[in-house]
Design brief:
There is one protein chain. The chain is 41% helix and 17% strand. It contains eleven helices and 13 strands. It has helices at residues 18-33, 38-43, 65-75, 104-134, 153-162, 180-186, 189-207, 232-241, 253-263, 277-284, 295-298; strands at residues 48-56, 60-61, 80-83, 90-91, 96-103, 141-143, 176-178, 225-229, 245-249, 269-272, 290-292, 305-309, 314-315. The strands form three sheets. Strands 6-11-10-9-8-7 form a six-stranded parallel beta sheet. Strands 1, 3, 5, 12 and 13 form a five-stranded antiparallel beta sheet that branches. A two-stranded antiparallel sheet has the order 2-4. Helix 1 packs across helix 3. The longest helix has 31 residues, at 104-134. It is elongated and about 75 Å long. The model is unreliable at 1-10 and 211-220 (pLDDT under 50).
């Protein structure tokens, strides 16, 4: 992808479309089913139908119904999934959060894949909601990171939003984040920022810029530039360059407080590095604008959800809820 293709309106929060979900689901089903479900196909008559319910075995926030429906639909379009708790809704332990009805072979063969998606995404939404609540009453916005499961980033990001969080950049293409190693290669913060700005401006010039605003202006065309700093001295240097955001890497809350006072609102500040639920409130009280949390997606605790079928299956028409 060229720099010109990166001219997007800041950070765009988009979820996966139906085609992407279908591709993700197909990969997961191919991995699990292979040549077929030998157990189910041996035991269950081809015309057997039944219904079941999704049971939340722990309190949390539900996310992932579109993927669940796509999973069963890929196996048999007659399967009907009906959420009882919408995406983003908090549920209590022991509550029925949805139902499913259709051919039993599809229900059993798709059960694990559907639950894997539902449990993972609900786990992300649940953890995100906890962080969002921890910083309530402050200005801090909870952000996700690129520490997502490979191939599932758009799903993970969707779950973060359903939990009340906000997405950071989707990938390396939609925001310039100048990190420690970039700075080392460039020979300093100023040199790194200068090179990024020059490259972005050149890309706009090559693509044509009807607004004449280049990489630093133009409605819906500017790529954000963020600079990572580790010390207050680096912060001062970065502030003089006026990037769009400055990332405070692994600073203590006391250092973050000093950083907020030094920045004095000139550039938004993002706290990052080892943020835990237990420390989120203290970090937020320093006055930073953003807190990025890798734990939302890199070490997901799946929400415990089960799928329980009702009674023995019967031949015939798909039962209704």
């Amino acid at each position: 992808m060229t720099f010109a293709a990166m001219m997007t309106p800041q950070i765009v929060q988009t979820g996966p479309d139906a085609q992407e979900i279908e591709a993700i689901v197909r990969r997961a089903l191919d991995e699990d089913l292979g040549a077929g479900d030998v157990t189910t196909d041996s035991i269950v008559p081809a015309d057997a139908v039944s219904r079941g319910q999704f049971l939340a075995k722990a309190a949390g926030v539900v996310a992932g119904w579109e993927v669940v429906a796509a999973t069963f639909a890929a196996l048999d379009p007659r399967v009907v999934v009906r959420p009882a708790a919408a995406d983003g809704e908090a549920v209590e332990a022991g509550s029925v959060i949805g139902t499913v009805a259709g051919p039993v072979r599809a229900l059993l063969s798709g059960e694990r894949v559907a639950l894997n998606f539902l449990q993972r995404l609900s786990g992300i939404a649940t953890t995100t909601r906890a962080f969002v609540r921890a910083v309530e009453g402050t200005r801090a916005v909870i952000l996700d990171t690129r520490k997502t499961a490979p191939g599932l980033r758009r799903l993970d990001r969707l779950a973060v939003r359903l939990g009340g969080g906000t997405n950071h950049r989707l990938g390396l293409f939609d925001m310039a984040l100048i990190k420690e190693n970039h700075i080392a290669v460039a020979g300093g913060i100023a040199a790194a920022v200068r090179r990024v700005r020059a490259a972005l401006t050149a890309a706009v010039d090559r693509a044509g810029d009807p607004d004449g605003a280049g990489s630093q202006g133009g409605a819906g065309r500017r790529v954000l530039i963020e600079v990572e700093v580790r010390t207050l001295a680096e912060l001062r240097e970065a502030l003089d360059l006026v990037p769009d955001r400055i990332l405070l890497d692994n600073m203590s809350p006391a250092e973050m407080g000093d950083a907020v006072r030094i920045a004095a609102g000139r550039v938004p500040l993002e706290a990052s590095g080892g943020v835990r639920l237990e420390t989120a409130a203290e970090i937020a009280r320093t006055g930073v604008d953003y807190i990025s949390v890798g734990a939302l997606t890199h070490s997901v605790k799946a929400l415990d959800i089960s799928l329980e079928l009702a009674g023995p299956p019967v031949p015939g028409k798909t039962p209704q809820r």
